[in-house]
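quick one, 310 residues, struct below
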Amino acid sequence: MTIEACPGCECQEFDHKPSGFPGFRLSNCRRCGTAWTTPQLCPEELESYYNHDYYGPDNVKFVKPMEMIVEWMNRVRARQLHRLLKAQGKVLEIGCGRGLLLEQLAKMGHECTGIERSSLAAARANRISGLQILTQPLEDSEFVEGSFDLVVQWHVLEHLENPNHILKKIHRVLKSEGYLVLEVPNFSSLQAGIFSHWWFHLDIPRHLYHFSMDGLIRMLKRNGFTVCRVSTFSLEQGPFGALQSLLNFWIHPTNGLYAILKREIQISAFRKLTHLGLCVALSLPATAFAGIEAAVGRGAVLRISARKAI
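---
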C-alpha cells in the first residue's frame, strides 16, 4: 500500500530515513511528526510476523514472574477504566489478546466483547466466563450504531492498516459521549529521538504507524472525538522500554531481554547472565530516564482518553 498523505494531519510533505530494519525505511511527516513504515506488507505477508512465538507457547506469553506483573497491571488498568465509566456498561476491546483486561472488567460487572486477530489468543480468551470474543475485524462485525459505552485499544492502532478508517468505525459503534481509551508508542518521545532504530517500541514491520502526540490528537479530532486526557507515563512500558533500548546499544540480539522473558530464544547461560547483569546495572538509570521524559510530557507512550463528540 502506498501512503500519499500523513494519516495524522493529511500533510503530503514527508522525509524518508533508514529504519534500522533491512528492507524497510521510515517516512516521516514534516508537519506533525507522525511516521509510517515503508513499504507496508500485505496482510498475508504481515501475518507471518504474528507467529506462535509472538503470542507465547501454550498461550502464556512470558515467564511466570513477568506473567504475574502483567496480570497485576491489567487489574490496575481495569480499575482505572471502571472509574471512568462510573457504572456498569458495555465494553469493546479491539485487539484483546488473551482477554486479561476484559476478564477483570467482566468481574466488575461490565458486559465485555473482544476482537482478536489471533485464533490462539482468542481461544484462551473464550475460556473466560462472561466474555464474547470475535476473530473478524471491526469492519466485518455487525455491531449496531451506538452499541458500546467504552472502546479500548491497547497498543493496537499502530498495527492496523488504516487507522483513520478504524477510528471512524469506533466512532460509529460508540454511544453518544461514549469513551475511547487507547495507548500507542510515542514517536515524539525522548526515547524514540535518542535511541532511534534501537528503540524497543519501534517493532518494524509489525508497527505500520508511529504516532506523534500532535498527529494522533489531530487524527482523533478529525474523526469526531474530543480529547479529554493525554498522558505519556506508563509504569508498564516506560522503564522497560528505556531499559531494553539501552541494552540494545550494548548487547545483541536486539530486544534480547524481551525475547528471553518471552522464551523466544535459547541462548547460553553466559549470554543470559550478561543480559541479566546489564539489566540490573541499567535498571535504575532507565527508570529515572523514563520518569524524567514523562515529567516533561515526552514519555514512551501516548495514553489518550477521548469522548465521542456530540
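The chain has eleven helices and eleven strands.
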